[in-house]
Amino acid sequence: MAAAGLVALTGCGEDVGASGLGGKTYLSTALTENGAPKKLAPSTRISLMFKDDGSLSANAGCNSIGGKASTDGGTLTVGDLNMTNMACDAPRQQQEDWLLELLKSKPAWKLAADKLTITAGGTVLELQDRETAQPDVALDGTKWVLESVIAGETASTPGNGGAYLTLNGGRVTGSTSCNDLQGAVARTGDKLTFGEIGTTRRACSGEAGALEKTVLATLNGEVSYTLDADKLQLRTPAGNGLDFKAAG
């Protein structure tokens, strides 16, 4: 029985790859229900990432949703879905619930060039390949504003805001939200190695002090980085880190 289960999962992986979706991320461009446009929650887009291993990663603006997927016969079928556990405001929570129901409904899909259409009943979700819809922002010279602090499986939003980074070649500047910072950084492949980070000497307490400690602990030695459109993720070897978004 265990072997049969493994075969089924492997089949899903090959299916996604053969569909032309594997290795691609698609971002929503339009959504209609029963012919009428439906607005998304403010400052959000639906994203669907089809991985080469046959899994799907989806996001409706808050938590990450993931699981095995099959695209056999023009139908998108998902298995058991896992999800991060970050608290969402009401509009994003409703949108997340809606996306979960859509994925579980075994919707039809159609790919035409770089455009993906997902259809279920009267719902039509139109998406476009992220590389066309939203190319990667340059790592250097961009002001990266801190959005989330990652501690293992938990993501939290910094309460006071104001923390950011800007990388320029071998230098990093920015703010911990309390003090300005600067230092050296080296880049090798998908790794950034931070040297000693210097800061101004303003006294920080409460949330600002805790956030400063977290930021400086992350910018200490080698971290892996992922650049995806206007998002930058930094992760320590322990799996903790910081998520940023390009300003403006």
TrEMBL record:
Keywords: Stress response. It comes from the Bacteria. Gene3D superfamilies: 2.40.128.270. InterPro entries: DUF306_Meta_HslJ (IPR005184), HslJ-like_sf (IPR038670), Hsp_HslJ-like (IPR053147). Residues 23-125, 138-240 form the DUF306 domain. PANTHER family: DUF306 DOMAIN-CONTAINING PROTEIN, HEAT SHOCK PROTEIN HSLJ. This is Heat shock protein HslJ.
